[in-house]
Amino acid sequence: MRRLLQRSASVFRLTRVTGAFAAVANVWFVIVWTRAVPAEPGTAELTNQPLWASLAGGALTALGLYAFGATLNDVVDAKRDRTLRPDRPLPAERVSVELAITLAVGTLLTAVLGSLVLGRDAAVLTSVVAVAITAYNVFGRFVPAVGLPILSVIYAGHMLVPNAGLVFVWPVLLVLTHALLIGLASHLLDRRLTRLSARALACAISGWGLCASALLWSASQRSEAGGLWPAWVPAESLWWVAGSIGALLVMCVRRVVRLHRGPRSAEKIRRYGALWPAFYACAWLIGTGRLDAAWPLIGLAVAGLLGMTILREAYALVEEPIEYRS
Asked: What pTM does this model have?
């Protein structure tokens, strides 16, 4: 029994399921938003099928893509992690390379199958995002000037999987920016990573700017009035979003001040970054007066907080029982 628990814990750590709440929250927001806002066009699958079916398909897609990327990351980094992160499941030999590859293939198939619930266009976009995830893990991570914008596009792209024709794209733009800033902050804090030069930083910001401009331009073409901010979205919602951003900044600054620069503070920033899109989603829905539609996201945010805490303690108990600790 204990061996089964250890193996399960290693698989969970390999796929980094505790960080998948951001992926699920982003997809769920677009699903809930499209169904709750009459002026927002949606696909036939998204508007006609039951909400639970769309949420289930979105969750499978998001979890599958996230786990695929996390597992592929460890497979590509297996040799490097033996030196820098020997506690990871692959270098610690708690998970074999064969099992890791099987998990990568299985999670990718899960993502594609889940996207079929949301329609053919969703399945195509899921495949495109999977290609971007592969490109990021194979070479993008080692070239920050290219990798950081790709990472931002991955987050924004998978968010649009349920509805690629979204008109109100500011939540997507927020996630695009959030992914870039979290990636930059964690990269600068983690001394184990390659140094980020001024030229690489400029290239990363330029890449983000091009993606953001393309996103806003495409949305303006779909908008009836041709504007960047639809008239049916109250501007007061920005106060709620600003509050959630401020809370994230306070949490990150406190952790960095306490832990100082290093891998631990970088990991904390990544964890907060993986959780906070759920709070962004709640802020957008509550700020626009759609509290009744926000409950799936509120539940997900609470589950994310509890899940990260419970699984972190479970990993410690399974992999290093109290009686074996010094």
From this structure: 0.85
